[in-house]
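Q: I have two molecules that I believe assemble together. Could you output structure tokens for the complex as a whole instead of separate predictions?
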Amino acid sequence: MTILKTEQLRAYYVLDMMGTKKEVKAVNGIDLDIKKNEVYGIAGESGCGKSSLLKSLYGLIEPPLRHIDGKILYNINEEEVDVFSLSQEETRKLRWEYISYVPQGSMSVLNPVTRLEETYRDFLESHVPAKSKNEIFELAREHINKLGLPQKTLKAYPHQLSGGMRQRVTIALAAILKPEIIIADEPTTALDVVVQRGVVQLLKEVQNELNNTIILVTHDMGVHANIADRIGIMYAGKIVEEADTETIFGAPKHPYTRYLINSLPQFGDKSVRKSVPGSPPSLDKLPDGCSFNPRCPHAKGRCFERVPEMVEVNNGHRVACWMEN
Amino acid sequence: MNLLEIKNLTKVYSQGGLLSRIKITAADNVSFNMKPAEIFTLAGESGCGKSTIAKMILGFETPTSGHVIHKGKKQKEIRNRKAWLEQGIQAVFQDPFGTFNPLRQVERYFFESIQNFKLADTKDAAIELINKKLSAVGLKYEDMAGRYPNEFSGGQLQRISIARSLLTDPDLLIADEPVSMVDASLRMSIVNLFKQLRDEYGVSVVYITHDLATAYYVSDRIAVMFRGNIVETGSVEKVLMEPKHPYTRLLRDSIPQADPQKKWKDTITLGELEQDEFLRAGCKFAGRCPDVMDICRQKAPEVLNVDGVQVRCHKWNGI
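A: Yes, here they are, computed for all two components at once.
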């Protein structure tokens, strides 16, 4: 069952500087079809538009980011709802109850001058109909307990917790209203490997518990291999390949995906690994044709003229590359 | 002869107020040697003391006790930090965007270093030198001339930062988490560069990281640190393929493998507060160790030589 769908979604940063107009095509025609109860991974380099895509999915398109074209459809109680047709108050209600968000820097979500229980109260008060202070604290305590985090974290200030613990508290907070979708933007970047493992574990536990959907963005392919069910590879504002995790790692089709996977070092194998050559294109000056052509070893002819469409090469395996078309 | 010798290096920081003062031993009796043209990895979580060691090698921090010896000369006997670095030590830092001032053209840093170390007399000679160093990292002077840091990608900027450190022809590079801020897709270009510098220019690198997969790929020997102690030292093949210390094993198994067949199977419990571990008597890893014994909580383990690997663990006592 589809829980979130986008149709040819386009959102650009439109900048007007000293008379010259600049369009940064951060989300450039994206079709997603995310199912209920799956972990959907999005991978890509920094500056490929991952975070802008997430903001759009969250219904949070604010200037300078502008919605150009396309639709985002939420499936709320078996009913398709177009996010852009809702009023501000209606989208506000949906946040945290239907779709919630785990941002990258956990320090910037948690208020540094209040104890965490106050932060929990702020979130709960605006969504749960009138309850007393104690009832709300009780709810928060129960929730924290269930996720196996120590009780005393609620009484602590954010700076008293380690980075990993803060990130786990943020995940717990995002799950408290049992949302259908949790969006996680690089939740483990800047964390140590051991802590990263703990955080990924918690995400997976939350998903098992709530039976919901997680959209996980990270550039670490190792994390995707561990937790994602399906993966979309994003390049220059577009999804260029999409398949289930086994296929992405076992039989990648797009040259970019192949580079991403083959460049990762593995234990017990010291053969030479190469990075993707060149650097990512700037999203306001995309090359003609396929955006990957300046870095692609197979680029020829029509790669420089026309943008390849996504085609289904196998059951559920979609690629946007002229070699497969 | 050893290029670098670290002998019983200790650094103690005091923390807290006047009455509740506690002492944290960030580096505890750390010793290791490095040969010329060798890549040596210092691995461990944040707060294990690996950056403290780097700062002491560079002379940014004064050791509480112990010695840093580079090419037979003791750091303590050289008063001036510049003279110490002129012996051939250079640093590469974690965040390439933090290394360079965003309002300054990147090339200014090169000219400044050349002036400070009197490496060239004329501007043409300086540009020639810059070109030579940039070509070692796969760039050209024209790519860089007149541009500001925001015009480069993270990987390019990190390569430029390495080229800058090569200006003085160092024989030792201290690279503190050089790839953790660089995108995974561009990471290998930096790591391969260290290999190339070792093989073609005979530069030794202290590679400080928590990413054991790249450490395995690039380095010759590795030391794993935990809360100020080196717990295991040896060749990467031995240490990472057959880890002897339970902490090395935990660290290695926690690396997410880019292979859906090799998912994590068991769950882990995350540790207590960092401070408690630093102050723990006996083995500092005892609180999280799966193989913990009674003796671990009482007595700190000694370094044992097992199968060519130095390991600090009671488990191997008497074997």
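A: One point stands out. The first helix of chain B runs from residue 50 to 58.
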